[in-house]
TrEMBL record:
<dbReference type="GO" id="GO:0031388">
    <property type="term" value="P:organic acid phosphorylation"/>
</dbReference>
<comment type="similarity">
    <text>Belongs to the glycerate kinase type-1 family.</text>
</comment>
<dbReference type="InterPro" id="IPR018193">
    <property type="entry name" value="Glyc_kinase_flavodox-like_fold"/>
</dbReference>
<keyword id="KW-0418">Kinase</keyword>
<dbReference type="GO" id="GO:0008887">
    <property type="term" value="F:glycerate kinase activity"/>
</dbReference>
<dbReference type="InterPro" id="IPR018197">
    <property type="entry name" value="Glycerate_kinase_RE-like"/>
</dbReference>
<protein>
    <submittedName>
        <fullName>Glycerate kinase</fullName>
    </submittedName>
</protein>
<dbReference type="InterPro" id="IPR036129">
    <property type="entry name" value="Glycerate_kinase_sf"/>
</dbReference>
<dbReference type="Pfam" id="PF02595">
    <property type="entry name" value="Gly_kinase"/>
</dbReference>
<dbReference type="InterPro" id="IPR004381">
    <property type="entry name" value="Glycerate_kinase"/>
</dbReference>
<keyword id="KW-0808">Transferase</keyword>
Length: 378
């Protein structure tokens, strides 16, 4: 019997690989001779780098870059086993967690550090870069990132515009002459799971600005600045009218910057991950697939890891089980999509810190009980 174990991480508790190891340990008590194939997963958000490193035997690169406030922060990205593919989480360099709540101001925060991660990957010879959006502290449409890659954003006096989202309102000219030449030989895929356009009531500033510290006045200023950036960009690239494209507003407009200036492709995160780690080839001769995440609820069917894994398993008619830290509202929605069963690992009411601390033990015990139940029907 071949069992594929392809879970996401349990946030704040276990990495995807640790989850997979725990499930395997529980199942092995009942099925010691089964073939186990562990494929750590993610959906493009937090934990994607670690999951893909673990799934492909890659390595992590750690370096100091410029954080959202311009101060040095320690960031990271992954290089997969092919030594040609890099995986970057934007939040690693430009994430909200780098900015104290009292200092959050998307008028001035910059994505420069994300550009430094991309540049480092290019300098190491990467030919394919996967970038996960989400958790950003910025609203600069990737302007900081572009600057780090040698693209000059200039005002009417030919001087660099101020960093941050508000500075885009001063943009008059874009100088591409010093753009990192290795970009031309690199394919960039972007894990994007939102459909917001760059501007307007559903745009980057209006929807994501408040969590980054934007007031109503700031939102209007930022939205106008992003709209101005789109107009200038459209004059430079008449064939690239990406400001209305779904996902262009992701991560404070980073989606727009990547699409327009780096010729990136926006793809659902779970799709990128399943393709990159080769999940399909592991599932094609499997007898059972086990997936999971920290919480399975009604939102899981909208591009979360268990749904993505289920869709791959269904291509080969392999039954799939979901295991979660907890089950939320409308968790059974994924059952209507074809998953055979879902299980929560928490055995009883307990404080959150205890639940997180005991996650591994509870996961092993739950997995053992699931395996014992399956064994009854064999």
């Amino acid at each position: 019997m071949k069992i594929v174990i392809a879970p996401d991480s349990f946030k704040e508790s276990l990495t995807a690989m640790q989850v997979a190891n725990a499930i395997e340990k529980g199942f092995k008590t009942i099925f010691p001779h089964a073939e186990y194939c562990k494929v750590p997963m993610a959906d493009g958000g937090e934990g994607t780098v670690q999951a893909m490193i673990d799934a492909t035997n890659g390595k992590k690169v750690t370096l100091k870059v410029s954080g959202p406030l311009g101060e040095p922060v320690e960031a990271f990205y992954g290089i997969l086993a092919d030594n040609k593919t890099a995986v970057i989480e934007m939040a690693a360099a430009s994430g909200l967690h780098h900015v104290p709540r009292s200092k959050r101001n998307p008028l001035t925060t910059s994505s420069y550090g994300t550009g430094e991660l991309i540049k480092d990957a290019l300098n190491r010879g990467m030919k394919h870069i996967i970038i996960g959006l989400g958790g950003s502290a910025t609203n600069d449409a990737g302007a900081g990132m572009l600057t780090a890659l040698g693209i000059k954003l200039l005002n009417a006096q030919g001087q660099p515009i101020p960093s941050g989202g508000a500075g885009l309102s001063e943009l008059v000219q874009v100088d591409m002459s010093q753009c990192a030449p290795k970009l031309a030989q690199c394919k960039i895929d972007v894990a994007c799971d939102v459909d917001n356009p760059l501007c307007g009531p559903l745009g980057a500033s209006a929807i994501f600005g408040p969590q980054k510290g934007a007031t109503t006045e700031m939102i209007n200023e930022l939205d106008n600045a992003l709209n101005h950036f789109a107009q200038v960009s459209s004059s430079l690239f008449p064939s690239k009218q990406f400001h209305t494209v779904k996902g262009s507003g992701a991560a404070g407009g980073m989606g727009f910057g990547l699409l327009t200036y780096l010729n990136a492709t926006l793809t659902p995160g779970i799709t990128l991950v399943t393709q990159t780690v080769g999940l399909a080839k592991h599932c094609q001769d499997a007898d059972l697939v086990i997936t999971g995440e920290g919480r399975i609820d009604g939102q899981t069917i909208f591009g979360k890891t268990p749904m993505g894994v289920l869709q791959v398993a269904q291509q080969y008619n392999v039954p799939t089980i979901g295991i979660a830290g907890s089950l939320g509202d409308n968790a059974n929605a994924i059952l209507t999509k074809g998953m055979q069963a879902i299980f929560a690992i928490i055995p009883g009411v307990a404080p959150l810190e205890v639940v997180l601390e005991e996650a591994e033990t509870n996961l092993i015990n739950t997995s053992q009980n699931i395996a014992a139940t399956l064994n009854m029907s064999l």
